[in-house]
Amino acid sequence: SENTTANIQDMVDQSLEKLEMSSLHRYKQRVIKINSYSTKLTSGRVTTIDFDVGYTNCLKYEWVDDASTCQFIEHLPRRHCVSEVWERLWLKNGRKIEVTCQDDETPLEAHVEFESADIATRLAQQALKHIEAKYPHPKKQQLVRIFSLEKQVVAGIHYRMKIEVGLTDCLALSVQDNCHLINDGTPNRFCRVNVWLRPWTDHPPNFRVTCDYQAGAMTDMYHHVQAEQLFFNFITTYKPEYINDHVEMTKRFEIFKENVKKIHELNTHERGTGVYAVTRFTDLTYEEFKSKYLGLNPNLKKPNQIPMRQAEIPKVHQLPASFDWRPLGAVTEVKDQGACGSCWAFSVTGNIEGQWKLKTGKLLSLSEQELVDCDKMDDGCDGGYMDNAYRAIEQLGGLETEEEYPYEAEDDKCSFNKSLSKVQISGAVNISSNETNMAKWLVHNGPISIGINANAMQFYVGGVSHPWKALCNPKNIDHGVLIVGYGIKEYPLFNKQLPYWVVKNSWGPGWGEQGYYRVFRGDGTCGVNTMASSAVV
């Protein structure tokens, strides 16, 4: 019958999965044909399946949407296998599978090693992000123990490990630490983890995790339950205005639920050490977030305008490994633009504050509200462009201080008083898009105004952010910020270093790392190198 055929195919698929887990071969296997099957009843149901498998041209750990597209390799011998499947209700997952094959394989170009406890722990912590995304729960999950870890050098580096994870007393996707394992009757998960690493490419490690069986419907339910509990905690923490509006609450929950999926996606595709979690922006669509908390709009660039000249890059024989203008007194406190698309103004004032400090020795906090109200080339809280702001400051005759012209986070009538202007500029320059040259300029000349794609910043809570390019398009620049320094983070797990920029944001000190964002340096991540500029004072 149709049901029997489907059930046998499911058993063969599970048998092949078990076969792949024990295989040391570099190529993915595929079933060639099912020769025969029979079922007998003893203390349960036992199905014996006779089938043939062959090696394909797909690599074992390669992600393939449809395995039938993998072609058999003719010169490698097929394997004749027999699987015995015990179906007993009292068994974990209901099935026990034993597979044996004739002409058992000899691993090709493979070398298996056992890894150190330190590497094992670091790999397991990375795998945990993928487990939390694939098997969601309202509680944060934590590593309980590592049973085994093997390393295999085949077309890259493959790690295979078995781990146990349990639930903690912390909420999932939260920045809570000091979490403790709890015993609420929920059984721990036992997971198999496969990691495929190709160090010579720019691709992030490919993690595949398989834990105790969980049906698709259950996973969907847990996604919903997780989002529900996180949303309850969100509205309790942030007390949004819509808390008594049932219709708006329902709408916001659906947005929140989609954003939780996006947070999991950012965490599982992260190529650095960036961590993404529920933030105060998690109930906003990206368009809402963009209009309220970003505001950089390159489309405001005026046509036929004389372009800014190119900055001269200082000749530096050897750059310091790290550099930061904050301890040198050239950076004011982290400010908060509020729900106003004025990031461009904060980026420009931050740059000029640094330039003025280097020229005069005085650090002044300058007025963003002056630009919001008086820069008629830009649109105030509806967005602006740094090039325009430099020109507007020249035309106005300078900037007042924050104290004299305080920030209001809304558009208002211009009340600039030229006689109170404390800082004047004489133009602006574009800085190289080469990130080494940007670092040279920064060390000698001060903080740099830049534009960036803020997609990953909506949920960023810390670490060196290096999102997958598809999740942070360098061409979609929508947020104005300020580079104040750079450094290098050691990343011992995969024996590499993570160079990064230190970026001052304008969402208050409670966001990110005390108001700052560390983003990967060297490959144009999120467009960090595409719009670097500075005023000339």
TrEMBL record:
Family annotation (InterPro entries): Cystatin_dom, Cystatin_sf, Papain-like_cys_pep_sf, Pept_asp_AS, Pept_cys_AS, Pept_his_AS, Peptidase_C1A, Peptidase_C1A_C
Is Disulfide bond set as a keyword in this record?
yes
Keyword Ribonucleoprotein present in the record's keywords: the answer is: no
Peptidase C1A papain C-terminal domain residues are 319-536
Where is the Cathepsin propeptide inhibitor domain positioned along the sequence?
A: 231-289
Q: What PROSITE patterns does this protein's entry cite?
A: THIOL_PROTEASE_ASN (PS00640), THIOL_PROTEASE_CYS (PS00139), THIOL_PROTEASE_HIS (PS00639)
Gene Ontology terms, MF aspect: cysteine-type endopeptidase inhibitor activity; cysteine-type peptidase activity
Q: Which GO terms describe its biological process?
A: proteolysis
UniProt cross-references to CDD domains, sorted A to Z: CY, Peptidase_C1A
Keywords, comma-separated and alphabetical: Disulfide bond, Glycoprotein, Hydrolase, Protease, Signal, Thiol protease, Zymogen
* Ranges of residues in domain Cystatin: 1-102, 105-212
Family to which the UniProt record says this protein belongs: Belongs to the peptidase C1 family.
PANTHER family hit by this protein: CYSTEINE PROTEASE FAMILY C1-RELATED
Q: What is this protein called?
A: Cathepsin F-like protease
Q: Which organism is it from?
A: Chilo suppressalis (Asiatic rice borer moth)
Lineage, opening ranks: Eukaryota, Metazoa, Ecdysozoa, Arthropoda, Hexapoda
